[in-house]
Write a structure and sequence with these properties.
Radius of gyration: 15 Å
Distance between the termini: 30 Å
Helix content: 10-25%
Structural class: mainly beta
Largest sheet: 6 strands, mixed
Number of helices: 1
Order of helices and strands: EEEHEEEEEE
Length: 131
Amino acid sequence: MIPETWTPVRRGDELVGYLETAPTGSIPRLLTGSALDAAHPRTEAIAVLEARGLPELDRVHWARLPHPLPAGRFAAAAPERDWHWTEVAIVHVTDAECTVRPRAADPGAPESLAVLPVPVAGLLRREAPER
């Protein structure tokens, strides 16, 4: 669940992210709760979210998931040792959960979705993990 201390940032009626107050300024956070950038003065942090908050969610992300991912919705909040970092696409984000799907899903296979808690912390990465 998104902390109550984070301030929602909207562009018009659309939620684009959150600001977390830090000693060095405001940290722009994605809808997933991940930090988008380092702390900035408040107005700059808002501008960063307005410009990059939603587009950032459309890029490739990585999550540790079992292979194969079971059909349906799978709770992936506690990765097990034999799970692998998998390229995923974000399907949906609420203030409580982030739903992702593997980018390389088998054609014709039933839809498989993984559900992560928000904030996603180390469960979802924007950069490929070290191999």
